[in-house]
UniProtKB/TrEMBL annotation:
It is found in: Secreted. GO terms for molecular function: cholesterol binding. GO terms for biological process: cholesterol efflux; intracellular cholesterol transport. This is NPC intracellular cholesterol transporter 2. Pfam families: E1_DerP2_DerF2.
Length: 150
């Protein structure tokens, strides 16, 4: 018996939902926005296991409390309370799913990629992800524990 397209679609949706469960995160200073949800895919459990040579999808839903012409992401690996800059392919929030200019009271889905390079060490750390407005104030800031692995 061949499964119907609806059964296949439901099965795929269930699998995608498992991979993109909302994460428990620490808000580390969102001032000009409020985070509604953070998803890292795939990351079915925490700490997220980040495999070297793999790229992870980041989706943050947030509401803006201000108007801003633009936004810029800054990502860090935090070890022993020291922030080490972590390059991402596209730091411009307006090229990452956000319709600019940002409007006060509107919700946005910020979408980006987190590439984990093969040369990174295998280590446990905290990923800290900030999105700042055009006044360099935090639209959002969140932290999650991760483990980089081979």
């Amino acid at each position: 018996m061949v499964p119907s397209p609806l059964v296949l679609l439901l099965a795929l949706s269930a699998a995608a939902t498992v991979l993109a469960e909302p994460l428990r995160f620490i808000d580390c200073g969102s001032i000009d926005g409020s985070i509604q949800e953070v998803n890292v895919s795939p990351c079915p459990t925490q700490p997220c296991l980040l495999h070297k040579g793999t790229s992870y999808s980041i989706n943050v839903t947030f509401a803006s409390k201000i108007e801003s012409q633009g936004s810029k992401a800054r990502v860090y690996g935090e070890m022993l309370h020291v922030d080490i800059p972590f390059p991402i392919p596209e730091p411009d929030g307006c090229k990452s799913g956000i319709q600019c200019p940002i409007q006060k009271g509107h919700s946005y889905s910020y979408l980006n990629k987190l590439p984990v390079k093969s040369e990174y060490p295998s280590i446990k750390l905290i990923v800290k992800w900030e999105l700042v407005d055009d006044q360099d104030q935090m639209l959002f800031c969140w932290k999650i524990p991760v483990q980089i692995t081979s």
